[in-house]
Protein backbone atom coordinates (compact mmCIF):
# COMPACT_ATOMS: atom_id res chain seq x y z
CA UNK A 1 0.00 0.00 0.00
CA UNK A 2 1.83 3.05 -1.26
CA UNK A 3 0.44 6.30 0.06
CA UNK A 4 3.20 8.89 0.26
CA UNK A 5 1.47 11.45 2.46
CA UNK A 6 -1.12 10.96 5.20
CA UNK A 7 -2.23 13.51 7.78
CA UNK A 8 -4.77 12.73 10.52
CA UNK A 9 -5.92 15.39 12.98
CA UNK A 10 -8.25 14.76 15.91
CA UNK A 11 -9.73 17.58 17.98
CA UNK A 12 -11.92 16.96 21.01
CA UNK A 13 -13.48 19.47 23.39
CA UNK A 14 -15.52 18.50 26.46
CA UNK A 15 -17.40 20.41 29.12
CA UNK A 16 -17.27 19.01 32.64
CA UNK A 17 -19.98 19.36 35.26
CA UNK A 18 -20.37 21.03 38.62
CA UNK A 19 -17.29 23.04 39.63
CA UNK A 20 -15.42 21.79 36.52
CA UNK A 21 -18.00 23.31 34.18
CA UNK A 22 -16.78 26.29 32.14
CA UNK A 23 -19.56 26.63 29.55
CA UNK A 24 -22.59 28.87 29.24
CA UNK A 25 -25.20 28.92 32.00
CA UNK A 26 -28.79 29.66 30.96
CA UNK A 27 -31.48 30.19 33.59
CA UNK A 28 -29.18 28.66 36.20
CA UNK A 29 -28.59 25.48 34.17
CA UNK A 30 -25.26 24.19 32.89
CA UNK A 31 -26.66 23.51 29.43
CA UNK A 32 -23.56 21.79 28.04
CA UNK A 33 -22.56 19.83 31.16
CA UNK A 34 -21.00 16.47 30.22
CA UNK A 35 -21.23 17.37 26.53
CA UNK A 36 -18.44 17.17 23.99
CA UNK A 37 -17.66 17.61 20.33
CA UNK A 38 -15.05 15.73 18.35
CA UNK A 39 -13.64 16.26 14.85
CA UNK A 40 -11.47 13.85 12.90
CA UNK A 41 -9.84 15.14 9.69
CA UNK A 42 -8.05 12.83 7.26
CA UNK A 43 -5.97 14.03 4.31
CA UNK A 44 -4.04 11.67 2.07
CA UNK A 45 -2.24 11.68 -1.23
CA UNK A 46 -3.43 9.37 -3.96
CA UNK A 47 -2.35 5.77 -4.28
CA UNK A 48 -0.71 4.45 -7.45
CA UNK A 49 -2.28 2.55 -10.33
CA UNK A 50 -1.00 1.40 -13.72
CA UNK A 51 -2.52 3.31 -16.62
CA UNK A 52 -3.62 1.46 -19.76
CA UNK A 53 -3.12 2.45 -23.40
CA UNK A 54 -6.14 0.42 -24.60
CA UNK A 55 -9.74 0.96 -23.54
CA UNK A 56 -11.09 -2.44 -22.59
CA UNK A 57 -14.56 -3.53 -21.57
CA UNK A 58 -15.24 -4.49 -17.98
CA UNK A 59 -16.13 -7.93 -19.30
CA UNK A 60 -12.37 -8.52 -19.62
CA UNK A 61 -12.35 -9.62 -23.27
CA UNK A 62 -9.05 -7.86 -23.95
CA UNK A 63 -5.86 -7.66 -21.93
CA UNK A 64 -4.89 -4.02 -21.47
CA UNK A 65 -1.49 -2.68 -22.40
CA UNK A 66 0.50 -0.56 -20.00
CA UNK A 67 0.77 3.19 -20.49
CA UNK A 68 3.95 4.43 -18.85
CA UNK A 69 5.49 2.56 -15.95
CA UNK A 70 3.84 0.11 -13.59
CA UNK A 71 2.11 2.10 -10.83
CA UNK A 72 3.22 5.26 -12.62
CA UNK A 73 -0.13 7.06 -12.26
CA UNK A 74 -1.74 8.25 -9.05
CA UNK A 75 -5.24 8.78 -7.77
CA UNK A 76 -6.07 12.31 -6.58
CA UNK A 77 -5.68 13.48 -2.99
CA UNK A 78 -8.56 12.71 -0.63
CA UNK A 79 -9.98 14.60 2.36
CA UNK A 80 -12.69 13.70 4.86
CA UNK A 81 -13.97 15.36 8.01
CA UNK A 82 -16.05 13.47 10.59
CA UNK A 83 -17.83 14.99 13.59
CA UNK A 84 -19.34 13.57 16.76
CA UNK A 85 -21.40 15.44 19.35
CA UNK A 86 -22.33 13.53 22.49
CA UNK A 87 -23.69 13.98 25.97
CA UNK A 88 -23.31 11.72 28.99
CA UNK A 89 -26.26 11.40 31.35
CA UNK A 90 -25.81 9.64 34.68
CA UNK A 91 -28.72 7.37 35.62
CA UNK A 92 -29.33 6.11 39.15
CA UNK A 93 -30.91 2.71 39.77
CA UNK A 94 -32.36 1.99 43.19
CA UNK A 95 -32.42 3.95 46.45
CA UNK A 96 -30.04 4.62 49.31
CA UNK A 97 -26.72 2.84 49.68
CA UNK A 98 -27.74 0.09 47.25
CA UNK A 99 -28.22 2.59 44.41
CA UNK A 100 -26.24 1.83 41.28
CA UNK A 101 -25.34 4.20 38.50
CA UNK A 102 -25.22 3.78 34.76
CA UNK A 103 -24.07 6.07 32.01
CA UNK A 104 -26.35 6.92 29.09
CA UNK A 105 -24.50 8.45 26.13
CA UNK A 106 -26.61 10.20 23.47
CA UNK A 107 -24.70 11.05 20.31
CA UNK A 108 -24.96 12.52 16.83
CA UNK A 109 -22.22 11.12 14.59
CA UNK A 110 -21.69 12.54 11.09
CA UNK A 111 -19.19 10.89 8.75
CA UNK A 112 -17.97 12.83 5.70
CA UNK A 113 -19.39 16.03 7.19
CA UNK A 114 -18.52 18.14 4.11
CA UNK A 115 -19.86 15.45 1.74
CA UNK A 116 -16.60 15.41 -0.22
CA UNK A 117 -16.45 13.17 -3.26
CA UNK A 118 -13.18 11.27 -2.98
CA UNK A 119 -12.09 8.79 -5.63
CA UNK A 120 -11.16 5.31 -4.39
CA UNK A 121 -10.57 3.71 -7.78
CA UNK A 122 -10.42 4.69 -11.46
CA UNK A 123 -10.61 2.94 -14.80
CA UNK A 124 -7.08 2.50 -16.07
CA UNK A 125 -7.57 3.88 -19.59
CA UNK A 126 -9.44 7.09 -18.75
CA UNK A 127 -8.19 7.72 -15.22
CA UNK A 128 -11.72 8.61 -14.07
CA UNK A 129 -14.11 6.75 -11.80
CA UNK A 130 -17.21 6.60 -14.00
CA UNK A 131 -16.03 5.94 -17.58
CA UNK A 132 -13.76 3.16 -18.84
CA UNK A 133 -13.53 4.55 -22.40
CA UNK A 134 -15.11 1.48 -24.03
CA UNK A 135 -18.26 3.16 -25.35
CA UNK A 136 -16.31 6.01 -26.98
CA UNK A 137 -13.53 3.85 -28.51
CA UNK A 138 -13.76 3.59 -32.30
CA UNK A 139 -12.55 -0.02 -32.43
CA UNK A 140 -15.55 -1.21 -30.36
CA UNK A 141 -18.30 0.61 -32.26
CA UNK A 142 -19.04 -2.36 -34.60
CA UNK A 143 -19.49 -4.62 -31.56
CA UNK A 144 -21.74 -2.07 -29.82
CA UNK A 145 -23.78 -1.46 -33.00
CA UNK A 146 -24.31 -5.22 -33.46
CA UNK A 147 -26.26 -5.48 -30.19
CA UNK A 148 -30.04 -6.00 -30.39
CA UNK A 149 -30.60 -2.44 -29.24
CA UNK A 150 -27.37 -0.37 -29.28
CA UNK A 151 -28.89 2.53 -27.33
CA UNK A 152 -30.09 0.23 -24.55
CA UNK A 153 -26.70 -1.48 -24.52
CA UNK A 154 -24.96 1.90 -24.09
CA UNK A 155 -27.34 2.88 -21.27
CA UNK A 156 -26.96 -0.40 -19.40
CA UNK A 157 -23.20 -0.47 -19.91
CA UNK A 158 -22.95 3.11 -18.56
CA UNK A 159 -24.93 2.09 -15.48
CA UNK A 160 -22.77 -1.01 -15.04
CA UNK A 161 -19.45 0.85 -15.06
CA UNK A 162 -20.72 3.61 -12.78
CA UNK A 163 -19.55 1.60 -9.77
CA UNK A 164 -20.46 3.29 -6.47
CA UNK A 165 -17.44 1.69 -4.79
CA UNK A 166 -15.14 3.81 -6.98
CA UNK A 167 -16.10 6.75 -4.73
CA UNK A 168 -16.12 7.10 -0.97
CA UNK A 169 -19.38 6.97 0.95
CA UNK A 170 -21.47 10.17 1.03
CA UNK A 171 -22.36 12.02 4.21
CA UNK A 172 -23.86 9.68 6.78
CA UNK A 173 -25.72 10.88 9.89
CA UNK A 174 -26.30 8.59 12.85
CA UNK A 175 -28.26 9.40 15.97
CA UNK A 176 -27.72 6.89 18.73
CA UNK A 177 -27.84 5.96 22.37
CA UNK A 178 -25.34 3.84 24.31
CA UNK A 179 -25.95 2.52 27.80
CA UNK A 180 -22.94 1.61 29.95
CA UNK A 181 -23.77 -0.33 33.11
Task: Report helical residue fraction.
Answer: under 10%
Give the N-terminus to C-terminus distance in angstroms: 41 Å
Q: Approximately what portion of the residues adopt beta-strand conformation?
A: 35-45%
Q: What is the residue-mean pLDDT, rounded to a whole number?
A: 93
> What is the number of helices?
2
State the secondary-structure class: mainly beta
Features:
181 residues, mainly beta, 2 helices
Quick structural gist:
The chain has 181 residues and is mainly beta.
Question: What does the model show?
Answer:
- By secondary structure, the chain is mostly beta strands.
- The chain has one domain (6-180).
- The protein is built from two helices and eleven strands; from the N terminus they run ββββββββββααβ.
- It has a five-stranded antiparallel sheet with strand order 1-4-9-10-11, with no helix packed on it. It has a two-stranded antiparallel ribbon with strand order 2-3.
- A hairpin with a 6-residue loop joins strand 9 and strand 10 (100-111).
- The radius of gyration is 26 Å and the shape is elongated.
- The two termini are 41 Å apart.
Helix and strand topology:
Elements: E1 6-14, E2 25-26, E3 29-30, E4 35-44, E5 48-49, E6 51-52, E7 66-67, E8 73-74, E9 78-93, E10 100-111, H1 141-145, H2 150-161, E11 172-180
Antiparallel strand pairs: 1-4, 2-3, 4-9, 5-8, 6-7, 9-10, 10-11
Amino acid sequence: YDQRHRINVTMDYRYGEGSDYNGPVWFGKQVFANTGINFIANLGSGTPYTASNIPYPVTGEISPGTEGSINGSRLPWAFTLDANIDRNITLKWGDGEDAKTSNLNVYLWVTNLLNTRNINSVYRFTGVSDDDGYLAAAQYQPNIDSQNNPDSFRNYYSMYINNPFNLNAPRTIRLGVRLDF
